[in-house]
Design a protein that fits this description.
With about 220 residues, this protein is mainly alpha-helical. The protein has a domain of about 120 residues: Helix Hairpins, CATH 1.10.287. Helix content is about 90%, strand content about 0%. The chain contains 5 helices and no strands.
C-alpha cells in the first residue's frame, strides 16, 4: 500500500518534475487500460494518480506536502519506530484514501458540471431553434402580409385603370355626342338661315311685284 503520493507514483521524494511526469504517464496508461475493461479499482487508481500528480507537479503544493511529510517524520522519530510505523502507514493510507475520495468528489463535481453545461447548451440550442422558428414564422407572416398588400395594390391599380378607361370612354362618347349636336345645330342654323333668306327673297319679290303692278296701274290710268 502506498504511504505517500511519491509511493503512489513510484518515485522518491527527490524525484525531478520530469521523472514524476514520466511515471505518472506510465502508471496512468496502465490503469486506464484496466479501467477501460471495467476494473473499478483501476478507475479509483486513475483518480488517485491524477490527484497525486496534481499535487506533486505544482511546486507550491509539492512544497507544502513535503513540509507535512517532514513534520510527520519528526513525529515518527520522537514516538519510536515500532508504534509510529503502523500509525504513519495508517496515516498514509488515510491520506491516500482522502486523496482518492477528494479526486472522486472532484470527478463527480466535474461530471455534474459537464452535465449541467450540456443541459445549458441543450437549452440554448433549443432556445436558438425556437427563435429561428419564430423568426421564420415572422418572416412568412411578413411575406404573406406583403403579398396581400401587393395584390391589393395591384387590384386597386387595375380598378383605377378601368375607371380611367371608362371615364375616357365616357368623355369620348360625350365629345362625339357634342360634335353631333353641334353639327345638327349648325345644320339647323344653316337651314334656318336659308329659309330666312328665302323668306326675305320672297318678300322682296312680292314687294317688287306690287311696285310693278302699281306702276302698271298708273300707266294704265294716267293722271291729268
Amino acid at each position: 500500500m502506498a504511504n505517500t503520493l511519491y509511493d503512489l507514483l513510484e518515485v522518491n521524494q527527490s524525484a525531478s518534475s520530469e521523472a514524476i511526469a514520466a511515471n505518472y504517464k506510465r502508471l496512468h496508461a496502465k490503469s486506464a487500460e484496466q479501467a477501460a475493461n471495467g476494473d473499478q479499482d483501476a478507475t479509483n487508481q486513475l483518480i488517485a494518480l491524477r490527484e497525486a500528480f496534481s499535487t506533486l507537479s505544482d511546486p507550491q503544493r509539492r512544497q507544502r506536502y513535503d513540509t507535512r511529510l517532514q513534520e510527520r517524520e519528526v513525529v515518527y522519530v520522537e514516538e519510536g519506530r515500532s508504534g509510529s510505523l503502523i500509525k504513519w502507514m495508517l496515516f498514509g493510507a488515510i491520506f491516500v484514501a482522502c486523496a482518492i475520495g477528494t479526486a472522486k468528489y472532484r470527478a463527480e463535481q466535474e461530471k455534474a458540471r459537464l452535465e449541467s453545461e450540456r443541459a445549458i447548451a441543450a437549452a440554448k440550442i433549443a432556445e436558438i431553434e425556437a427563435e429561428k422558428e419564430l423568426e421564420a414564422k415572422r418572416a412568412a407572416e411578413k411575406a404573406e402580409y406583403q403579398k396581400r398588400r401587393d395584390e391589393a395594390a395591384e387590384r386597386a391599380e387595375r380598378e383605377r385603370d378601368l375607371a380611367y378607361a371608362n371615364q375616357v370612354s365616357r368623355n369620348l362618347q360625350q365629345a362625339e355626342n357634342q360634335a353631333r349636336w353641334d353639327q345638327q345645330r349648325e345644320q339647323q342654323q344653316k337651314a334656318n338661315a336659308e329659309r330666312q333668306q328665302q323668306y326675305e327673297a320672297e318678300r322682296q319679290l312680292a314687294r317688287e311685284k306690287a311696285y310693278l303692278r302699281k306702276i302698271e296701274a298708273e300707266n294704265r290710268y294716267p293722271r291729268y
